[in-house]
């Protein structure tokens, strides 16, 4: 079963790391460390193999994926030996990347995106394709009347002006092309009623938002601990320092605000209240693709005794995100093949701000994910 992943932001750090990792797994040059779908509890025959994945995508940048891989190797993100060994494979992946199109109207832009995806699928005789957004975070979308109804959206897109943010326009194009869609960013993506209507009409699944790779991952483990122990969390403050393209993008206030809201949701919905404090994101160019998060939690125990917990998380953003991107692509492709439609809420395990109103505790999300993946091998839905 040959299937495709069409990246939005295909020459960025996350997509490039995912491509290097996918190609290395296909060649038997590495192990699937960090890939959740490689866990024995998620071993399902319905999932396409790593070797079945074909990569393509759009980007506004004009560099090459090989050059980006070399830069990531120099920064210690990916092993230089893999970049050298995969030189020919990276050149093949580069041949499937296209400059992001821009038409006179958003309908024309979407049509060009659809044409590129359909041509990609035809060239490689792919059974299906999933579109994965790993582009820069957008500010929150401006409301528009056409967001609520598909017929109104179709008409508005054909007129001049901007109706959808880029992430949502790509979701529209993905569904039009018959593809599943995954938003690994906090951007709006498919989270609009008109796009949900389109996905349902085409019988397509989608997932998102905002991959859970570091500080928020720990929040989804620690917050349930406080809740289950009936300890009162009085404040929870976090400072995130990151560099690279994502950090530079998040220096823009609108994108920063969208990301911060996503990171705080788990506390409010797990604890049942919002403790004092906030999450701050600062750009530090010198640390490149690595990030550091420091959190201070104050809480009260029996008889009101004041206590504190602090933690520091240091990690490589792309190396944490890339295996999850491959996981989400494999699961979404299998869900599409199994006839699942609409929001894939059991994939909340992977996201800071997941679709639906389910449990935000990681252990509960893990149980739901295991059941969902196991069900892809059967007839139940």
Helix content: 40-55%
The multimeric state of the shown protein is single chain
Order of helices and strands: EHEHHHEHEHHEHEHEHHEEEHEH
Number of DSSP strands?
A: 11
| Estimated structural class | alpha/beta
Measured between the Cα atoms of the first and last residue, the distance is: 22 Å
Uncertain parts: none
How large is the radius of gyration?
20 Å
Helix segment count?
13
Largest sheet: 7 strands, parallel
Q: Given the C-alpha coordinates, what overall shape results?
A: globular
What does the model show?
The chain is α/β, with parallel strands linked by helices and 381 residues long. The protein is 42% helix and 18% strand. The protein contains 13 helices and eleven strands. It has helices at 13-26, 65-74, 80-85, 87-94, 106-123, 150-157, 166-176, 193-202, 215-228, 244-249, 253-271, 317-337, 362-375, and strands spanning 3-8, 53-59, 97-99, 129-133, 180-183, 205-208, 232-242, 279-283, 290-300, 306-316, 342-343. The strands form two sheets. Strands 3-2-1-4-5-6-11 form a seven-stranded parallel β-sheet, sandwiched between helices. It has a four-stranded mixed β-sheet with strand order 8-7-9-10. Helix 8 links the parallel strand 5 (180-183) and strand 6 (205-208). It is globular.
């Amino acid at each position: 079963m040959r299937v495709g992943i069409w990246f939005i932001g295909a020459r960025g750090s996350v997509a490039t790391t995912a491509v290097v990792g996918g190609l290395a797994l296909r060649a038997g040059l590495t192990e699937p460390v960090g890939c959740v779908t490689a866990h024995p509890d998620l071993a399902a025959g319905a999932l396409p193999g790593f070797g079945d994945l074909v990569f393509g995508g759009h980007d506004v940048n004009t560099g090459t994926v090989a050059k980006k891989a070399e830069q990531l190797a120099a920064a210690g993100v990916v092993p230089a030996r893999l970049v050298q060994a995969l030189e020919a494979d990276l050149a093949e992946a580069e041949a499937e990347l296209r400059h992001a199109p821009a038409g006179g109207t958003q309908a024309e832009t979407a049509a060009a995106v659809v044409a590129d995806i359909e041509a990609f699928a035809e060239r490689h005789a792919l059974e299906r394709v999933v579109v994965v957004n790993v582009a820069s975070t957008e500010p929150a979308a401006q409301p528009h009347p056409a967001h609520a109804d598909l017929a109104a959206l179709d008409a508005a897109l054909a007129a001049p002006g901007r109706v959808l943010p880029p992430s949502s326009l790509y979701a529209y194009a993905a569904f039009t092309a018959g593809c599943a869609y995954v938003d690994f960013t906090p951007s709006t993506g498919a989270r609009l009623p008109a796009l949900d209507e389109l996905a349902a009409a085409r019988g397509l699944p989608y997932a998102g938002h905002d991959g859970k790779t570091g500080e928020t991952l720990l929040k989804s483990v620690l917050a349930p601990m406080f809740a289950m122990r009936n300890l009162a969390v009085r404040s929870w403050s976090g400072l995130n320092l990151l560099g690279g393209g994502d950090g530079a993008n998040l220096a823009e206030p609108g994108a920063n605000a969208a990301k911060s809201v996503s990171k705080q949701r788990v506390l409010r919905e797990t604890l049942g209240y919002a403790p004092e404090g906030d999450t701050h994101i600062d750009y530090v160019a010198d640390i490149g693709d690595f990030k550091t998060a420091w959190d201070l939690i104050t809480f009260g125990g029996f008889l009101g005794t004041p206590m504190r917990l602090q933690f520091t998380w240091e990690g490589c953003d792309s190396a944490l995100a890339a295996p999850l991107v491959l996981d989400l692509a494999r699961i979404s492709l299998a869900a599409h093949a199994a006839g699942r439609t609409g929001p894939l809420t059991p994939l909340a395990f992977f996201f800071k701000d997941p679709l639906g109103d389910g449990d935000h505790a990681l252990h509960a999300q893990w149980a739901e994910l295991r059941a969902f993946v196991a069900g892809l091998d059967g007839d139940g839905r």
